[in-house]
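ok so I'm stuck.
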Amino acid sequence: MNTKKGFTILEVIIVGVFATLLLILFFVQKQNIDAMDRDESRKTAINAMYYALEEGFFADHGYYPEQISENNIKIIDPALWTDPLGFNLGDPMGSYFYEPANCKDGHCKEYTLKAILEKESDYIKQSRN
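replied:
not stuck anymore, here's the structure
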């Protein structure tokens, strides 16, 4: 008897197609997970800025600043001023924004902090005082 060992071309093609589909699914899910991780980092940074403004700056001064940075809000990690893509707070290409309101002579009564997220709607924190 003459028997051949090995796979037929059809079996190899089916396995190749299946492996390709698995790889595509893996990379799509990896991109989604990475985007969700960046969104969580953005929320963490906005929360840190919010609590630094409320519990730190406002508690000490009785008003909010016209601009925020690591120079006047020193109690948070300096790395949080930069978004996951490397842009600083207020950069037009970035995802972090501070918008003061009702300001007079550098003293503001309210503000809005915003992070533009990839997988969810914008994350917004507003002054509570």
